[in-house]
Design brief:
By secondary structure, the chain is mainly α. Helices cover 40% and strands 0% of the residues.
Length: 196
């Protein structure tokens, strides 16, 4: 609808006329998830100002931060984090925003999420960490972003585990915030696909 297409005036009018800001589609997606997925920063801001629930999950546990990260929308990722999005929230398959950014080849978003405290040790339902997903999908630039982050927080330390090696599955970022939240839901949706 209006949010996915970035039509701020239409969306604002709908909300002012009583449209339910957190209404979910048949797959559980909200206007905020759609705007984040499409990278409509102004629309995301408008929806948040009007009371959109930032951590609401769709039928597969996808959420706005995951939608933005999956599609490489760094400015929307930053906005959502500033406004309180749970950085380590997990979908019903265990996917996080970091896993989605890494699996889809968005190194700048990977680095943003790591610097914001994303936990590299979390594993998807398939048992993979974000940087293991990056390596599996051929996104060496995302693995390098992980190594760069480890060098920033632990200068002089080896980076094998941060690059998705065996062992612990990654150095957990200092100051990780947010809980390991899983959705009990389980149908298909766009936000979480391909990361687990």
């Amino acid at each position: 609808g209006a949010a996915a297409n970035g039509h701020g005036r239409v969306a604002d009018l709908l909300v002012r006329r009583g449209a339910e800001i957190n209404m979910q589609s048949s797959k559980g997606s909200t206007a905020l998830m759609c705007a984040a997925q499409e990278g409509h920063e102004r629309m995301v801001e408008l929806l948040l100002q009007r009371g959109a629930e930032i951590n609401m999950q769709n039928s597969v546990g996808g959420f706005a931060l995951m939608c933005a990260a999956t599609n490489g929308h760094g400015r929307v990722v930053d906005l959502l984090l500033r406004r309180g999005a749970e950085i380590n929230m997990q979908s019903s398959k265990g996917s996080t925003a970091l896993m989605c950014a890494a699996a889809h080849g968005h190194p700048a978003v990977v680095l943003r999420l790591l610097r914001a405290g994303a936990d590299t040790a979390l594993r998807s339902e398939s048992g993979r960490t974000a940087l293991q997903l990056a390596r599996t999908n051929g996104h060496a630039e995302c693995v390098e972003a992980g190594k760069k982050h480890v060098q920033e927080v632990l200068p002089g330390r080896p980076t094998a585990t941060a690059a998705g090696g065996e062992g612990a599955g990654g150095a957990s970022s200092a100051g990780a915030r947010g809980a390991k939240t899983r959705s009990p839901a389980g149908a298909a949706g766009r936000g979480a696909r391909g990361a687990a």
